[in-house]
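FORM 7B: Structural annotation worksheet

SECTION A. Query
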Amino acid sequence: MNFARRRGRVEEYLVENGFDGMICTNPESIFYLTNAPFLTGSAGKALYISKEGKASLVVSSLDYEEAFDRSEGTEIVKMEMGEKLFERLRRVSGGADKVGFEDGFLTVRAYDALKKNFNLASVGRLIEKMREVKEPEELKNIEGAVGASDRAVTKTLSNLRNGMTEIEAASEIEYHMRREGGEALAFETIVASGPRAAYPHGMPSGKRASGGEAVVFDFGVKVSGYCSDTTRTFFFGQPRDEMVKVYDIVLEAQEAAISSARPGITGKELDGVARSVIEGHGYGKYFVHGTGHGVGIAVHEGPSVNASNNEPLVPGNVVTIEPGIYIPKVGGVRIEDVIVITEDGSRDLTKFRKDKMVI
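SECTION B. Predicted structure
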């Protein structure tokens, strides 16, 4: 991946808008611009990019060696014990005045500290917008993460049992995601059964899944820093009539949206494709979220596939298509794939089967 080219785009923005430099504190932005890992040290870390093109990553001694080994084209600056991050940034900047920052990734405390050292101005969603269009190597990494998830759920199936707890089921798929190459979980695994499947983000509990209940599994891993995100709904025992109907409706909505995904369609329009199917079957009020979201370094990033996004999708966008129906006190169904927008349509990266499966 061409990190220098990415930083070059930032530098062009800084020059065009009269900035002396920019500070990034979001770990995802730092990774995107330098290849530095998601640093885990207790001390702060930040990237400074000057309008002249110099990139300096300030880290604690805990993170110095890994950052030094991983980062590309970046000066690594080690903070001394007791040193304050933003005071070191001031020295690194060489006395810069007008400095940009990502307003969505800064605490009030950090903002106040920065204001003491710089004349701050927001750069809005500059880096986030850059990340929306994936480069070929990014697509390869995402596809690798989706493949690991596909293999993991395939191997998990033989270990799922009618009557097991949601926690037990979640532990099975998490084990296999690691075994199949996942470097980390992309997010906390969701397993929600029966009436709890009506919770779109239901965390695993000690509840046992049985009696034909629908069980929603939402899972993902990271490979080379990029995420997968898959949802499948299984039935533990012979399914109940309404959930069978609901499953078919959700699958119809998902397939319609995937078929409609192409360059030029807006996130709102694509959301409308899935939503119209569900509404047409009388379940519109039970579809309580957008149809999808972008996936990349973060499991939730732009572009969104919902009613608020009037921007057209473009080749290189990677989004989920995940309609769902959630009936309180009864149950829920969600089916989710990751797709990439191509020059003439879209390509579904998720290969795991979507027929109704009874455990």
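SECTION C. Observations
The chain has a mean pLDDT of 94. The chain has two domains: 3-131, 133-348.

SECTION D. Sign-off
Analyst initials: ____
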